[in-house]
Design a protein that fits this description.
The complex is a heterodimer of chains A (about 110) and B (about 120). Chain A is mainly beta and about 110 residues long. In chain A, about 0% of the residues lie in helices and about 50% in strands. In chain A, the strands form 2 sheets. In chain A, strands 2, 4, 5, 6, 9, 10 and 11 form a 7-stranded mixed beta sheet that branches. In chain A, strands 1-3-8-7 form a 4-stranded antiparallel beta sheet, with no helix packed on it. In chain A, strand 5 and strand 6 (about 55) form a beta hairpin. In chain B, the strands form 3 sheets. In chain B, strands 2, 5, 6, 10, 11 and 12 form a 6-stranded mixed beta sheet that branches. A 4-stranded antiparallel beta sheet of chain B has the order 3-9-8-7, with no helix packed on it. In chain B, strands 1-4 form a two-stranded antiparallel sheet.
C-alpha cells in the first residue's frame, strides 16, 4: 500500500448539496492530483496542486475547487452536487510534478 | 489534446499463459510518458510499468513488458505466466514529460485470469 490516504471511503449526498473530500499525501510529497472515475470508465484529471498552488486543471466546471495545505494534504470541494458527480474520486501524490504519482484508495461518492 | 484508446473492454487468459493488452494514443507532444496501471477490486491504482517516449528500448518489469511503437502511437502490455492475482482492470495512460501527474487514461480493459 502507498502512504496516500483518503477520507471518507464512502459518502452519500443529496443533489444540490456540497461535499468535501480529503487526501493526506505520502510523507515528503508536495504535489497532489485529483481524478474523477465514473463507473466503467478511466480516471479523468480534475486538477493538481503543487506547493499549495493550483498547477493545472482538467475540463471540470468551477464548482469543483480545491485546496492544498502547508503540510501538503489536500481537499477537493464540489458545490451544487449533480447526479453525474457520482463517482470514485482518486487522489495521487508525488514528490514533484515529474516524478511517479502514488494513488490512494479513493472516495466513493454517491449523489441521490 | 491527448487521447488514449483501449479497444478491448474485456479479456481472459488461462493461468500461466501469456496475454497482450492493446493501447493506442494520440498526441502532438514529442516528450511524454506512457503508463500501465492495474486497479484491483480494492480500487487503488497500482503502477505496473512506465515507458519514456525518448527511450527506444521497451520497458520490462518481471512478468510485464511493453511493445512501444512510437511512430504508430501504440503501447501494448504483455503479461507472461499469468497469475490469478493479475485479475483486475488495466488502464493505459499518457502524460506529458513535464508533468506526469496530469495523466490521461483510457477506458480500461478488464482482465480475468482463469484457473
Amino acid at each position: 500500500e502507498t502512504g496516500v490516504t483518503q477520507s471518507p471511503t464512502h459518502l452519500i449526498k443529496t443533489r444540490g448539496q456540497q461535499v468535501t473530500l480529503r487526501c493526506s499525501s505520502q510523507s515528503g510529497h508536495n504535489t497532489v492530483s485529483w481524478y474523477q472515475q465514473a463507473l466503467g470508465q478511466g480516471p479523468q484529471f480534475i486538477f493538481q496542486y503543487y506547493r499549495e498552488e493550483e498547477n493545472g486543471r482538467g475540463n471540470f466546471p468551477p464548482r469543483f475547487s480545491g485546496l492544498q495545505f502547508p503540510n501538503y494534504s489536500s481537499e477537493l470541494n464540489v458545490n451544487a452536487l449533480e447526479l453525474d458527480d457520482s463517482a470514485l474520486y482518486l487522489c495521487a501524490s508525488s514528490s514533484g510534478v515529474s516524478t511517479e504519482a502514488f494513488f490512494g484508495q479513493g472516495t466513493r461518492l454517491t449523489v441521490v | 489534446a491527448q487521447t488514449v484508446t483501449q479497444s478491448q473492454p474485456e479479456m481472459s487468459v488461462q493461468e500461466a499463459e501469456t496475454v497482450t493488452l492493446s493501447c493506442t494514443y494520440d498526441t502532438s507532444e514529442n516528450n511524454y510518458y506512457l503508463f500501465w496501471y492495474k486497479q484491483p477490486p480494492s480500487r487503488q491504482m497500482i503502477l505496473v510499468i512506465r515507458q519514456e517516449a525518448y527511450k527506444q528500448q521497451n520497458a520490462t518489469e518481471n512478468r510485464f513488458s511493453v511493445n512501444f511503437q512510437k511512430a504508430a502511437k501504440s503501447f501494448s502490455l504483455k503479461i507472461s505466466d499469468s497469475q490469478l492475482g493479475d485479475t483486475a482492470m488495466y488502464f493505459c495512460a499518457f502524460s506529458a514529460r513535464y508533468n506526469n501527474n496530469d495523466m490521461r487514461f483510457g477506458a480500461g480493459t478488464r482482465l480475468t485470469v482463469k484457473p
